[in-house]
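Case 182 in the screening queue. Each case pairs one protein sequence with one candidate compound; here the compound is iron/sulfur cluster. For every case the pipeline is the same: read the inputs, emit a complex structure as tokens, and attach any notable structural observations.

Predict complex for case 182.
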Amino acid sequence: MDKKMFCFQCEQTAGCTGCTGNSGVCGKKADTAELQDKLTGALIGLARSIDDTAMVSENTWQIIIEGLFTTITNVSFDNAAIENMIQKVRAEKDALVPGCSQCQSPCGRTDDYDMQQLWDADEDIRSLKSLILFGIRGMAAYAYHAKVLNYEDPEVNHFFCEALFKIGYEESVERCFLLCSK
Ligand code: SF4
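Case 182 output:
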């Protein structure tokens, strides 16, 4: 399989299996798909840095919602804007855990997640985590627009954080299934 890109997040996906090669059915290019993966990995890194949601500012929730919304199917194919979003996510992580990125003995706990690990995972884990990921991307689209109208649900925000963390961590089919059924 040509692995220049891999995306199977929408119903248009090539051959009902996944868009690969230089671009997807929707016109998304391989470099954009890669940046969307990097942004998702950075969001998981941000979720990893949140030990207690009480420490989270309004700005953190805004960035999580905006970052997830950015990665939906065809919301943004603007590479510069996605790069900019990645930098915003990393800056927010640095604000939450100052000094972590300069640590001389990095433990990796707040590292960005490499999405290739997900695409290469056991098929049940890959399926369940993808379901969770695509689900929270869709939820973020609604949350983003609700926020514009000054509506926000703390429970939904916490779920974004929990789901992102578990996509980067959870390896049990049963626990992934439980999260899917929430
Ligand atoms: S979002 Fe685009 S690249 Fe991804 S599966 Fe759908 S058509 Fe393919």
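Case 182 observations:
- The two ends are 34 Å apart (CA to CA).
- The chain has a mean pLDDT of 91.
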